[in-house]
Amino acid sequence: MGGSGREVGGGEAEAGPAAGEACDAPPGVEAHAAPPGAEAYAASGSAEAEAGPAAGEAHAASGGAEAETYGAPAAGKAHSVSGAGEAHVTPPAAEVYAAPRVRGAGVAVGYVGSRPPTYAAEPTALPVAEPDGLDVAVPDTVLDGAAYGACTLRAVSIRGDSARYRGEPRRDALLTARFGAGNQALVLVAMATGARATPGAHRAAGEVCQWIAEAVGRSHARLAEDIRTARRGDLKSGLHRLTDRSLGRLRAGAAEQGVDPEQYTATLRCLLLPADPDCRVRVFFGVGAGGLFRLREGEWQDIEPGVAETPGHPLVGFGSPPPEPPDGDRLTMDLGITVPPNPYDPAPEPPREPFRFRASVAQPGDALLMCTAGLTDPLRGEPELCAHLARRWSDPDPPGLAAFLADAQVRVKGYADDRTAAAVWEA
Questions:
Q1: Cα 426-139-208 angle, rounded to 5 deg
Q2: Contact 286/385 with Cβ under 8 angstroms?
């Protein structure tokens, strides 16, 4: 800005001429100096290039369009520029430099590490679409944001480099929603990842996000009150039930489709953010792979809750072992003999992922990050990415949507999965 060049994302931005400088024009087109404070614009093809309405500004078009002048002197004549005191001579014919139109110039996707990733940095192949299934088509990238109470939210879901190359749909899903109004409102961020290398993975992820949002929306008033009054046990048990029911609907849907439940499933991670500015409690809950991090005073803290850290009483379902008989089978246990299965009992279900929960109080200046495994893995495996994002996100002013997207898609060689992330900055 102000006539200086700035390098952004590996591209180079050139500043236009300063006020009072003459701009050269292509052969056959007159070029005139603009007075201080006025900018000259050049257009190609048949479009007209317009300058501001002040006297002495030149309008030039190339490629067959007419060159218009508003109060400009004829070519080759000297004229004095008001306020500058210098006389400029416009040559009758001169060459002009036009910045080349480079695809993606100035917004190149960056990377960290010693080498760039193998895949291209931009989307290439689109997923195959079905005429009767366009309602479940997912875009390459989803970007959202909001500001409520003391926090500012940024959220993004990006198709991974591998899926872009192969023309596969994004398996990650992202949903942001506000329930209620005023200080009683509750903001939900839900993200999910469908099973790898399975058909319909994106549908499973989208469905479980929608179902948990419906369940939270119906109970948002009670949930918001429990958050404000710090009823951790009630929050944990209630959210555990809602999560179990939502994932249970996926299993039921798999049975209806005749699909293995392990193929039609998804991870699920959620944040609850009260809109009340006096309440700084942030609630995380979910099932499956991913990460929860906090950036405080420029340092990352991995605060993903372990199973043992989850408060409240365990519920039978996700993460809780089945109840043991009062007496147990002491004889066979002592002898180490396996009890034969009952042929009339249904086959045992595979072990399920544990339910995770954390309710924490945020501090001014904190940045909370919840993400799927696509971003969690490089954050834990590449220190340069941690350092880069710490520098970018330590500013107390949250990034805009475009800046957040650019930060979230910084690439690391060896990590090509979908990335979904939600970050919350505390004022």
A1: 70
A2: no
SS3 (DSSP) at 238 = helix
Instruction: Give the tokens for residue 305.
Output: 């809750």
Q: Is the dihedral of CA 190, 195, 201, 207 positive or negative?
A: negative
Cα separation, 137 vs 410, in Å, equals 25
Q: Are 147 and 187 in contact (CB under 8 A)?
A: no
Distances (CA, A) of 160 to 123, 143, 307, 413, 416: 9, 15, 29, 12, 5
> CB–CB of 211/230 below 8 Å?
no
pLDDT digits (tens, 9 = 90+) for 49-63: 444 444 444 443 444
CA dist 119 and 152 (Å) reads 33
pLDDT single digits (tens) 232-282? 999 999 999 999 999 999 999 999 988 888 889 999 999 999 999 999 999
Which residue type sits at 86?
E
Query: Which of 91-105, 130-144, 244-258, 285-299 has the largest mean confidence?
Result: 285-299
Whether the full predicted model's pTM is greater than 0.90, yes or no, is: no
